[in-house]
């Protein structure tokens, strides 16, 4: 009799009896790093489930995921449309992929385990029971499932708020609803002191609308818009446009107006929302009951996994339907009542952006801004699906000619739709470059790029390599005289960020870890920047920002073959793999002044090719927007 135990979370270990875990008659498979480390700590023999899935197989699943991003298009939308907008479509596309992709990967892994082990009994918890049942449906395999009460949530069901007080990072998590309530209270209090709010009856001028912009990151752009003879309106539903002192100063200086979505609908219009919620709830509930159509949509390798995601999907739309209907009605009123020159966004996948773009129906021009450092080669082209420039059907603003050529050559985008302005968010960087100080003590900025579930590459072995590289780096730095380390974490809300923070604190609690501190100030206060890039397609923006600020940058890449990105071929960044001689490379990077000067010269040459309008991109973009 062959028994296997599948453990997908650390909490499972408290539920599965110890005698089963330590039985010689069972084979255990761990599905994440925490489980692996705990089993290893308890000296319990086990197999890392990720070992059964190659990187190529993960990329195949990533490609398959593209079909599910638009699952709603395979269902007749007439019952779910409000003001011409499909309610099923509003869910944040990247949030959905971050939730669904790990489920697909686990399903394929479980399929391979069962195929290889041919078990007579499978032991697990309900966290993975439905995946197992979908695979063994026609097999005579006994199962035993223990109940794990911990619910799985989507990325934005809880909002993590992060601040730095000195060198101490503070983090606390709020439910989505509680966060939005606090955001609303905070904005109302701010309104007592500042006249930031846009009101429909106060202006008949042409308005330029910015969606979900952080004024602090685009301060120069909004300052350039201050003399626009019309209204510059910010719509920030997810994160307040006045979340800190700096952002408030930008709004005051630029004379922008904030349009609060909570204030768009009058009392009569708001009173209609519960009635609409009841109506559409019934229609969506009927959809969930139609298991045949949904089972046909949600399939991979001949296995349907609708039952594995059904409960979460029902919960999402039940909890967010009121918000989605409010969004649609508010955006519809905005489109109908404001004379808009153009709508500017950073993506088209978020709930705010999706809603207004759908309601707009090409009535007003829309513009999509490039907002992150992305280089592509043929091997990483599949990841363009995440940047959305390939699917956007109106004007696209890019940072330089290389991106324009890529969109034209690879996706046949009409050149007239592509505007080259440089990067407005980096104008302040070009004016902030300082001369490198020749101090006796060197400071190295360690910038580990977190692993994101949205890319399909997250797994136990990759995280083990990542942790080992951080540990080895800190051990090597301690050997060098007069070199200290500080850490800057990526501000993205990811569990891996919390894992990185905990790892570094355990390795050396004296190392400062920064979250929301200014990137410019952080880079300017160090001598060199070391980036860790575990995902095969990633080109972290920290590399570009280090180049702009004149700091030598080193990138540790976690694959045998480094893609031939232009910044790699031009030696603008010292790029190595995690299997190279780290100590020799760090010594060369930190102490060879001629090598550093060559890196900086190469970086400046790369920037001249990659970015246009250095330091004046905001002026260029503002000029386009004003005359649009």
Report what the structure shows.
- The protein is built from 22 helices and 24 strands.
- It has about 625 residues and is an alpha/beta fold.
- The strands form 6 sheets. The protein has a 7-stranded parallel β-sheet with strand order 12-11-10-15-16-17-18, sandwiched between helices. A 6-stranded parallel β-sheet has the order 21-20-19-22-23-24, with helices on both faces.
- A hairpin with a 2-residue loop joins β8 and β9 (about 170-175).
- The chain is globular, with a radius of gyration of 26 Å.
- The protein starts with a strand and ends with a helix.
- Count of helical segments? 22
Q: Note the main sheet.
A: 7 strands, parallel
Helix and strand composition category? alpha/beta
Strand proportion: 15-25%
Output mean pLDDT.
Answer: 91
Envelope shape: globular
What's the structural blueprint in terms of helices and strands?
Blueprint: E1 3-7, H1 18-21, E2 26-30, H2 33-41, E3 47-48, H3 55-68, E4 81-82, E5 85-86, H4 93-117, E6 121-125, H5 126-135, E7 142-146, E8 158-165, E9 168-175, H6 176-191, E10 207-211, H7 219-224, E11 231-235, H8 245-254, E12 257-258, H9 267-289, H10 291-297, E13 299-300, E14 303-304, H11 306-337, E15 340-345, H12 351-360, E16 366-369, E17 395-398, H13 401-411, E18 418-420, H14 427-430, E19 442-448, H15 460-479, E20 483-488, H16 495-507, E21 513-514, H17 519-524, E22 528-533, H18 541-548, E23 553-557, H19 566-569, E24 574-577, H20 582-591, H21 593-610, H22 617-626
Parallel strand pairs: 1-2, 1-6, 2-3, 6-7, 10-11, 10-15, 11-12, 15-16, 16-17, 17-18, 19-20, 19-22, 20-21, 22-23, 23-24
Antiparallel strand pairs: 4-5, 8-9, 13-14
Helix pairs in contact: 3-4, 4-5, 9-11, 11-12, 15-16
